Amino acid sequence: MNACLSKRFVFGCLCILYLPGSALASSSESSSIRWFENQIQQHPEVVAAREHKNAALSTADAYGKPLYNPEFETELEREGEANNYLIGISQTIDWRDKRDTKRQLASADRTIAEQTYESVVQQKSAEALQALIQWKAASQLAELAVNQERQLGRLLDLVKQRQQAGDVSQLDAEMTILGLSQTFSSTAQALSQLKKEEAHLRELLPEWSPEAALVPEIAKFVDTTISNNPEKIGQWLNAHPLVMVSRAEWDASKQSALLANKAAKADPTVGINAGQSDNENVIALTFSIPLNVRNDFSAEAKAASQEVLAAEAQYYATHRKQRFAIQAAYDVLQQYQKHSDRWQRLMQGRGKRSENLLKKKWVSGDLSTTEYLLALQQLTEGLAAGIELQTQFQLARIEWLLQAGQINTALESK
After folding, report:
1. Alpha-carbon radius of gyration of the chain
2. DSSP class of residue 268?
3. Average pLDDT, stretch 20-33?
4. Are 188 and 148 in contact (CB under 8 A)?
5. What is the C-alpha separation between 199 and 332, in angstroms, rounded?
6. CA nearest to 259, candidates 293, 312, 291, 307
7. Beta bridge partners of 301
């Protein structure tokens, strides 16, 4: 998916946010994106991820510091009438340049921290966009259920009037009452689901509100062009946060193994002392080095090398898994797009026309009340299925953007 299409789609999702009508009318596309991003940044999980990232970056900064601090030494003794003393300083030398290796390790750790945070933000952004889509669907289904209940209520009034006139039987009235009673449960479920979706959105977007809203139809913002270009997918795959984290962990394990090998070799310590002994000035040079005789630390170095092999295998596993996840998301999206387009062409404007036609046929006596009720139920189920199909198509689009790692790219490019 090119950047333009991604931007248009994400903006379309954001346009279903409940903002005051005047504010939405006057706000620009970019301000809607900024509002959404600000809401995501305020979410506690994102705040926690950001602080974890900052902590990891601070730890990585420590890797660039020198390994050893100088040591100050002093010695004082009394020998007869003389006061002997020594003052000196010593420094352990990073003989094998472990500091540079730790700098390389810090670079990999920074990538891990940043991409882990990026992954959390993308996941939370996708979750919020999907919640907006599901809330929109719940709103439509609730409206459909309420309309059906209202329609059957009006139908019952008409049936009673016609029954008094002798046009319909008592059975017709009973069937209408049964049909109306069945809608009560459906309406209650639809309205309850809408409240659940609203609560979910408030949890994800702290300042979201359903009051005084202008809600454009999201479908008109969804460009149905999808891309399965291998070159593009390869670029997205290599830049995907999970893949980058896995690659950085492999790089970090290499540096850790190199550091373990260097740590197995002892570093020397040199120093210089000056003082007085028996009223004579004394200057001394010192040199010391640990003798790795009882423990040569080779086991630690071997373990670190084995971790490199494990991290390499994990990287290829993550890369492979994500590649197939992108392909699967594309295949799912393609199916939903195809059937969504077919449904749109089949049902465009037909709902209201079918409703009017059925009522006309019932009034004229071409349809019995039972047949009319059954037809109305089928019409409602068909419209509800269309809402569900459109919802799944939009959710599949978000899932594809998430698996391709392009949600934040689309948002940030506004």
Report:
1. 36
2. P
3. 50
4. no
5. 28
6. 307
7. none
Residue 101 belongs to a domain? no
Q: Distances in Å between the alpha carbon of 121 and those of 44, 208, 258, 360, 376? A: 11, 18, 33, 54, 45
**Residue 99: inside a domain, yes or no?**
no
Quote the distance between the C-alpha of residue 370 and its chain's center: 49
Give the model's confidence band at 25: pLDDT under 50 very low, under 70 low, under 90 confident, else very high. Answer: very low
Residue 286 in domain: no
The whole-number average pLDDT for the span 96-120 is 92
Alpha-carbon dihedral angle through residues 145, 148, 153, 159, given to the nearest 10 degrees? -150
Residue ranges making up the domain that contains 219: 3-67+108-268+301-412
For residue 282, the model assigns a pLDDT of 86
The enclosing domain of 229 has a CATH number of: 1.20.1600.10
pLDDT category at 132 given cuts 50, 70, 90 is: confident
C-alpha closest to that of 246 among 345, 309, 317: 317
Q: What's the CA gap between 271 and 287, in Å, rounded?
A: 6
Does the residue 96 lie in any domain?
no
What is the total count of domains within the chain?
A: 1
pLDDT digits 0-9 by tens, 155-203: 666 667 666 666 665 666 667 676 777 778 888 888 999 999 989 988 8
Q: pTM score, two decimals?
A: 0.78
